[in-house]
Amino acid sequence: MRVVVVGLGVMGLPTARVLAERGHDVVGIDRHGVGARPGSSSGGSRVFRLSHTDAGMARLAVRAHAAWQRLQERAGEELILVRGLLERGAPALDTARVLEAEGIPFRSLDADGVAAIFPELTPRPDAPAVFQETAGTILADRTLAAELALARAAGVDVAEGERVAAIEPGASGVRVATDRRTLDADVAVVCAGPWATELLGPLGLVPPLLGVPAQVTYFASQPGAIDRPCVVEWHPAVEDCMYGMPTPRGYKFGLLDWSRPWDPEGGAIPVDEDEQARLGEMVARAAPGLGAPTGSETCPVTLSADGKFVLDRRGPVVVGAGCSGQAFKFTPLLGELLADLAEDRARDPLLEQFRLDRPGLDRPIGSMRDLVLYATQEG
Questions:
Q1: Paired residues of 107 in beta bridges
Q2: 87 Rama class: left (phi>0) / alpha (psi -120 to 50) / beta
């Protein structure tokens, strides 16, 4: 079978690699290059976690953990710095209920327990706190490099800096037209991030998606902060919610308030100095021991209406879309699931939650704030 994979980020690249390892003829195309800005997979680090308030995502994370172990063995290097995840605030109670129901080990912590594992955090004695030890920091750039090396070794024809202009399904396959050539294939797997609407919209194969800029800021951490856990700090106001993780560059924080407008054709996303300053003030209150901001970086995030991926197939086109800021933690498993769809295998039960025709997916969304509130209301 000949397959064209459009987009070589955390969905497309492992899909191309898995398909080639299964013996298929695979061409992988990325308009910017693997890991390049302004793609959604750029940057040095992401978080891996089993902690979710949605049972379906927790089950996916358990499967992804096994896939990560397989990938690390194949790559011959550590790709996740296991540090655990501390989640603090009212939604941590929902996380605890899901973890308990799914049989995933965790600990509920009081204020003394929080201080013992993350002494730099400002005490919040009345805030529920949950710690799950399997979580950690994904070495994102190293992961993409490992996936790319394995893909090339398996025979994937990697084309970087090539732009796909159109996808034309037919009775016996699909034609992919780029700015350089025309490719005929049995299947096209489209994992184009915020550019999915441009390619799949004319075919009616993509739900409403919203591309927004995400920004993270690094802090001049004290010695030993690299050993602190990842953290999610929930507050009543969504715009005050933060997430963070230890990285080789220092401790990294970001906000869940992704509401800035962004044009996917506008190139790399500039750093918002006001957001960096605001986050610096918040971290100074929440974790004063982690130092001052040392720099920020950005990438796009593509939101779906319910914050879940779109993983489905229509005819000769497989859709991998709607990263919703969560795709990197599942990357090796997403490659296997999307490859299964390309091969038209029996549908994995985990994929039911990501169907194109699931209820509510056609609901328009305005920002990450809307998404968080929607998810909370839906339970």
A1: 131
A2: beta
Cross-strand pairs, 138: 46, 80
**Rounded to whole angstroms, how far apart are CA atoms 7 and 192?**
5
pLDDT of residue 377: 39
Adjacency order of strands within the sheet including 187-190: 157-160, 25-30, 2-6, 187-190, 317-321, 310-314
Burial 161-172, CB ≥16 within 10 A → b, else e: ebebeebbbeee
Q: How far is CA 264 from the centre of its chain?
A: 18
Residue ranges in the chain modelled with pLDDT below 50: 374-379
**Torsion sign, CA atoms 354, 359, 361, 362:** positive
pLDDT of 378: 36
CB-CB neighbours of 350 under 10 Å = 16
pLDDT at res. 366:
66
In this structure, the number of other CB atoms found within 10 A of the CB of residue 359 comes to: 8
Strand-pair partners of 311: 320
Check residue 375 and give its pLDDT: 46
* Rounded CA separation 30/176 (Å): 13
Cβ pair 47, 85 in contact under 8 A: yes
CB 320 within 8 A of CB 193: no
Q: How far apart (Å, rounded) are the C-alpha atoms in residues 164 and 178?
A: 4
Pairing between strand 182-185 and 173-178?
A: antiparallel
HEC-encoded secondary structure of 33-48: CCCCCCCCCCCCEEEE
350 conformational bin, left if phi > 0, alpha if psi -120 to 50, beta if neither:
alpha
Beta carbons within 8 Å of 201's beta carbon, 6+ residues apart: none
Which tokens is 112 given? 């003394």
**Distance between CA 130 and CA 107 in Å, rounded?**
6
**Consecutive H or E run containing 168:** strand 164-170
DSSP-derived pairing of the beta strands 242-247 and 107-109: unpaired
Establish how many alpha carbons lie within 13 A of residue 126's alpha carbon, considering only the half-sphere containing its beta carbon: 1
Q: pTM of the full predicted structure?
A: 0.95
pLDDT at 240: 84
pLDDT digits (tens, 9 = 90+) for 238-274: 778 999 999 999 999 999 877 777 888 887 899 999 9
